[in-house]
C-alpha cells in the first residue's frame, strides 16, 4: 500500500506541473498538446490510486472517492471533446454520464445531510460534497446535450474542453494546497498564500471561457453591426 501512496503523490505532482504548464502556454501549440496529454495520464493515474487508497484503507472515502471519480470523468470527457473516439464508443459517453450523475447525486445528498447534522458529514464539511455534486450534475447535463445533438463544434466545443480540464486541475490544486496544507513547512502555512495557486486556476478558466465564448460573440456582433457604427461616427 505504501507503493500506492508513492505513485499517487508522484502522479499528482506531475499532474499539477503539466496542468499549470498547459494552462499558461499558447493554446493549440505543440507544448500545450503534449503537456495536456501528460496531464490527462497523470490525473487518471493519481485518481485511480487515490480511489484504491480511499476504498482500501478508508482514507476519507466520502470525499476522496467522489474526488477521484469526478477528476477522472472530467479529464476523459474533456479529451474526447477535442479527440472524439469512434462512433462505437457511445457506450463510453453514456457510462461516463452515469458515473457523473450518480456521483453528483450522492455528493449532494451528503452535502444536505452535513448541513442538517450541524455542518459536517462523516467528519467532512458540506463544501466538498456540494462542489463535487454540482460539478457532476453540470457535467451530466452537458453530456446529455452532446448525446442528443451530436459532437459540439466551434466555441462550444472549446468551452467544454476548457472548463473540464481546468476544473480537474482545480480539484488537484485544491486537494494539494488546501487539503494537504498541514504537510507544508510551518512558515508556508499561510492560507491566503496557499490559496493563490488554486484561485489562479479559476481565474484562468473564466478568462479563457470569456475569450472563447463571450469575446468571440461580441466580435461577431461588432462585425455584423460595423456599417451602422461607421454611420454613427
Topology, number of strands: 2
The largest beta-sheet arranges its strands as: 1-2
Question: Can you tell me the number of structural domains?
Answer: 1
Morphology: globular
Can you tell me about this structure?
This protein has helices spanning 2-24, 30-57, 61-82, 90-116, 126-149, 154-178, 191-224, 226-232; strands spanning 120-121, 124-125. It has one domain (2-232). Helices cover 82% and strands 2% of the residues. The chain is mostly helical and 233 residues long. The termini are far apart. A hairpin with a 2-residue loop joins strand 1 (120-121) and strand 2. Strands 1-2 form a two-stranded antiparallel sheet. The chain is globular and about 45 Å long. Helix 1 (2-24) packs antiparallel against helix 2 and helix 2 (30-57) runs antiparallel to helix 3.
Amino acid at each position: 500500500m505504501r507503493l500506492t501512496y508513492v505513485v499517487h503523490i508522484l502522479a499528482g505532482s506531475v499532474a499539477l506541473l503539466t496542468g499549470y504548464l498547459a494552462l499558461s502556454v499558447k493554446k493549440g501549440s505543440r507544448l500545450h498538446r503534449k503537456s495536456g496529454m501528460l496531464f490527462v495520464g497523470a490525473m487518471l493515474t493519481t485518481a485511480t490510486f487515490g480511489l484504491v487508497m480511499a476504498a482500501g484503507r478508508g482514507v476519507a472515502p466520502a470525499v476522496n472517492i467522489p474526488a477521484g471519480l469526478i477528476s477522472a470523468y472530467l479529464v476523459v470527457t474533456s479529451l474526447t471533446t477535442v479527440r472524439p473516439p469512434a462512433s462505437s464508443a457511445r457506450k463510453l459517453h453514456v457510462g461516463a454520464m452515469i458515473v457523473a450523475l450518480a456521483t453528483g447525486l450522492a455528493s449532494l445528498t451528503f452535502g444536505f445531510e452535513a448541513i442538517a447534522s450541524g455542518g459536517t458529514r462523516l467528519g467532512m464539511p458540506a463544501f466538498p460534497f456540494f462542489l463535487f455534486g454540482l460539478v457532476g450534475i453540470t457535467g451530466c447535463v452537458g453530456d446529455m446535450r452532446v448525446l442528443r445533438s451530436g459532437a459540439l463544434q466551434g466555441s462550444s466545443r472549446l468551452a467544454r474542453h476548457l472548463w473540464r480540464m481546468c476544473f480537474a486541475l482545480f480539484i488537484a490544486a485544491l486537494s494539494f494546497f488546501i487539503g494537504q496544507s498541514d504537510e507544508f513547512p510551518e512558515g508556508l502555512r499561510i492560507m491566503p498564500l496557499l490559496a493563490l495557486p488554486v484561485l489562479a486556476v479559476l481565474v484562468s478558466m473564466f478568462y479563457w471561457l470569456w475569450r472563447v465564448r463571450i469575446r468571440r460573440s461580441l466580435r461577431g456582433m461588432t462585425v455584423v453591426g460595423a456599417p451602422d457604427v461607421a454611420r454613427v461616427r
